[in-house]
């Protein structure tokens, strides 16, 4: 078969692969001529390597971080903030294409609400030329002020039982005074109120990443993203909280006996259990209205609408059977992704850290509104 003859509207998929249903940003698989993320039937996410040096750099970075013989404290801590890496992968049909074999982060969520946030005031690396710098600056003109930018997101409406998708074009149109209201506000809002339970847990996890960046003097990250996910099914109550060390729910890292396990489980369940929808008393419309009124400098842009795909959702998980470990869903998670522009340094990565602090501050502001 000549893959160049494949109809790109019906992209050819190698055997055992599917297009991820919850991908909100990044390269999308559109056939042999344009490779992107794939979901393997075994539950892993497969990311096609980009052309050198970017693809080579990312593969080498993953191998370094997940080296089984590694004893470096900074690197071991970084492992906890990244998707688990399972090596490289090749399809028989694409023998010349190398894929990263990665943990499927959405597999433990029934109705995943996902956002990809590119981090840093500068998303171009030190090797970028003038044309590349200019291109990156035009994508999101407010990035130097905020240090982060939304590149795509999806939310789940538990009342309408629908997924809403907001593409990169919606995200790029967000004005300087709309990042909080129509960016984070849209991502964390449902008709019955603001998902403050998810915001609280994600802030806690972001602060763990912030703590790592405050101390590490090993790497500088450019055009790297944070992938935030929270459970959109407000009726779900059987959450578990993954281990803070390895992000797994079936490990023994923090437990030594059954008594300790029982007490930990009770504490975790109490802290992470979603509140009933009647407790989410602040309506989305009221929250956004109050924030709009408080922001006197806000530019009115009522014509700014999402590029929304209303997709009916059945009673099955939107992530299907794509879980390597098929546990009950977790409430929220955040991981660092995309490492094609990581460089070795001997100083603190203030570029990334600036955006991270601002993101946490904006989420706290939304929480306190």
Number of strands: 15
Q: Given the structure, what is the number of helices?
A: 10
Helix content: 25-40%
Strand order of the largest sheet: 13-8-7-6-12-14
Please provide the ordered H/E string of secondary-structure elements.
EEEHHEEEHHEEHHEEHEEHHEEEH
Give the low-pLDDT segments. Answer: 1-8, 254-327
Explain what this protein looks like in three dimensions.
With 369 residues, this protein is α+β, with helices and mostly antiparallel strands. It is built from ten helices and 15 strands. The protein has a six-stranded antiparallel sheet with strand order 13-8-7-6-12-14. The protein has a five-stranded antiparallel sheet with strand order 1-2-3-5-4, with helices on one face. A hairpin with a 2-residue loop joins strand 9 and strand 10. Helix 6 crosses helix 10 and helix 7 packs antiparallel against helix 10. The chain starts with 16 loop residues before the first strand and ends with a helix.
What is the topology?
Elements: E1 17-18, E2 37-40, E3 45-48, H1 54-65, H2 73-79, E4 85-89, E5 99-102, E6 112-119, H3 130-139, H4 143-146, E7 148-157, E8 162-166, H5 168-172, H6 179-188, E9 189-190, E10 193-194, H7 196-215, E11 219-221, E12 225-231, H8 258-272, H9 284-294, E13 311-312, E14 332-337, E15 342-344, H10 350-368
Antiparallel strand pairs: 1-2, 2-3, 3-5, 4-5, 6-7, 6-12, 7-8, 8-13, 9-10, 11-15, 12-14
Helix pairs in contact: 6-10, 7-10
């Amino acid at each position: 078969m000549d893959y160049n003859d494949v109809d790109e509207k019906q992209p050819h998929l190698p055997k055992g692969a599917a297009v991820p249903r919850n991908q909100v940003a990044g390269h999308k698989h559109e056939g042999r001529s344009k490779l992107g993320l794939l979901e393997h039937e075994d539950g892993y996410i497969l990311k096609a390597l980009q052309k050198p040096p970017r693809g080579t750099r990312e593969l080498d970075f993953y191998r370094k971080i997940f080296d089984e013989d590694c004893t470096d404290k900074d690197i071991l801590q970084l492992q906890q903030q990244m998707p688990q890496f399972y090596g490289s992968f090749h399809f028989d049909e694409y023998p010349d294409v190398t894929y990263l074999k990665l943990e499927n982060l959405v597999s433990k969520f029934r109705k995943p609400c996902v956002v990809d946030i590119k981090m840093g005031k500068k998303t171009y690396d030190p090797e970028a030329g003038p044309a590349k710098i200019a291109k990156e600056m035009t994508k999101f003109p407010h990035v130097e002020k905020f240090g982060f930018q939304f590149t795509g997101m999806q939310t789940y409406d538990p009342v309408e039982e629908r997924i809403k998708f907001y593409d990169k074009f919606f995200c790029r149109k967000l004005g300087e005074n709309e990042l909080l209201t129509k960016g984070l506000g849209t991502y964390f809002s449902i008709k019955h109120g603001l998902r403050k339970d998810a915001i609280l847990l994600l802030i806690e996890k972001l602060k763990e990443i912030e703590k790592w960046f405050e101390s590490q003097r090993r790497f500088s990250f450019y055009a790297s993203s944070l992938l935030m996910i929270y459970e959109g099914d407000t009726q779900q109550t059987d959450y578990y909280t993954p281990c803070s060390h390895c992000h797994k729910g079936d490990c023994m890292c923090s437990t030594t006996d059954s008594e300790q396990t029982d007490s930990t489980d009770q504490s975790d369940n109490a802290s992470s259990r979603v509140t009933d929808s009647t407790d989410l008393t602040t309506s989305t419309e009221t929250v956004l209205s109050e924030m709009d009124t408080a922001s006197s400098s806000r530019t009115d842009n009522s014509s700014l609408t999402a590029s929304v795909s209303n997709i009916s959702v059945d009673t099955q998980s939107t992530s299907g059977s794509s879980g390597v470990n098929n546990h009950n869903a977790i409430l929220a998670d955040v991981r660092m992704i995309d490492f094609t522009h990581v460089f070795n340094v001997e100083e603190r990565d203030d570029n990334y850290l600036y955006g991270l602090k601002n993101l946490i501050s904006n989420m706290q502001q939304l929480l306190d509104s």
